[in-house]
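Progress against Task 2.4 (sequence-to-structure conversion) is shown through the following example record, which the project officer requested during the mid-term review.
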Amino acid sequence: MNPTQPRAILGLFSSLAIMAAGAAEPPRMLFLEDAGHDATAPSGTRSGYAILRREDGSFCFYNPYAPSSEPLSLPDAKGVKHTLRPALPESVVQSKVLIESGILANAQTLLSADGTVRSITVKSERHSKEEAARIGLPLYLDVWYREGNATAVSEPLRTWRGYNGSQMEYQRLASGRLLVPHGSYVPHAKAVPPTGRHETVIEYSDDGGASWQLSVSKLTTPCYEGYNGSNEGACEPCFEELRDGSIWMLMRTQAGCLYESISTDNGSTWSASAPTRFRTSTGPANLMRHRDGRLVLTWNNCELPPKHQGVGVYGGRDALHMAISSDDGRTWQGFREIYLDHRRNDNPTASGDRGTAYPLAAFSEDGQIVVLAGQGKGGRNPILVDPDWISATSAECDFHDGLAQWTVYQHIGPAKRWWRARRIGCELIETPGKSGTRSLHVRHAPTEPNEAPSEPDTAVWNFPNGWRGELTARIRLPADSQGAIFSLNDRFFDPSNTLGEDAAVFQARVIAENTTPDTWHTLSLRWDLGRNQCEYRLDDKLIATLPLQSGTLNGVSYVRIRSAAKTPDPHGVIISQVKVQITDPNAPAVTAEQVLASQQEYVRKIITRW
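Structure tokens generated for the chain above:
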């Protein structure tokens, strides 16, 4: 256990919602020893956690640096140990050959029914300055294959030479083919439009890894000027076999959504990349088939914040999300935060990585989903997720756990090399008229002459996704309040700018004229995306029928509460409780034409603002 990890803070996120008795438990983070830096790992961090994928699609859990037949047992924020089962099979750990070979020292390995262990790794190959200039790559990050059994382990075989920045996953298909897709840094390419400097390539082997071929398909995705980051292009893919025999691949992009490609010939060739319904900032995704047959998608359902005065600012990875599909990806439920970065309201570190990205998912023998995710010191750990919690249809917050469920930071000061200071905006106060409880106070705080100017407070909260549903909140406007804006969104938006308001699905303004000063009211937002409207009520009185402001393919899964004040307003709005009840939790099936139209709208409304 790393004693420097803020376990008390991280523990708060495990109380993500107040649930009825007997309901599914919210996610719980488990903690690993700090295993140090590894430039070839997807997150840049070594991890004392690994998965072995068996031929039937199930997983085993182990410490890659100390493989054992003992189950991996890790503490949560309260120190309670959680045992991840099953452990490595006895046939593996009893083999001195396998254990001493180091083949298991990998975040993910494969085990065939005949006892063969397979491992794909990335190893760096350095160039001289002159050689790098000639080749057009700073170095090689080559792909290597190794296999072994109880009696012998092969020497590593290089399957591909080039620059593979991060190997997200690989699998042995039902056909027996080994499939290894990954990004490829194109020699001499630059991180600029139209497609950045990476393409996705696909390696495969039909003879158990003895020889390898490269698909003729090389996948690219669009990128755009003004992007708040590096236009890397199509990279860091994940994939899963579908029930119809096709293979579905999702790629990281800089176009505001994951892109997809389909193979109908066992991975030999792939369709041209196309946008998906899944909005994202810039992180890679993970696809996993659960033992109950459902597809599980883990990704950053976040919007990247804009640059500040033309200078890049870190963002877009403060929250990691999960959705589940019972019909092989046609419809989806959840879109829930499973990891809300405990560092989100603090200043970024001066150097190094941070965030919640690079997920690697598996499931335990009791059906729990286990996701290894995160970046930076103390940030990459396994997360236990109950799939029933993902598909729940209600959530509630009364601030008994502080601001653990909320993102409330403000950016302050100049930006420099992707760094910009953060501070907490909203605060909790004692609930007026109810001592011993706390409420959220959203205002536009006055500042002292020597302080940086404040922004209007914004608070962001995630709940189960709904095509139809109702959000209710107990609110109170003190006398002289300038009011607040309640926005319903389909993804996480940085609280420190107004993009979340501008791109809201629905938006309601709470103003003094509709309320009684210093009196509690019940606000209700009842939306129906089948009718593209939302009823806004106060104390059950209809205030307005809100029109659709921005289209969504998925539904509503966020509320943003922002001070409407144009000038400092210490009064603001007080919120003591927020509840959501979803009546239709399914993000409906969409056509390729609908997805393309949505992406074109995104380019017009969002990308043009970059």
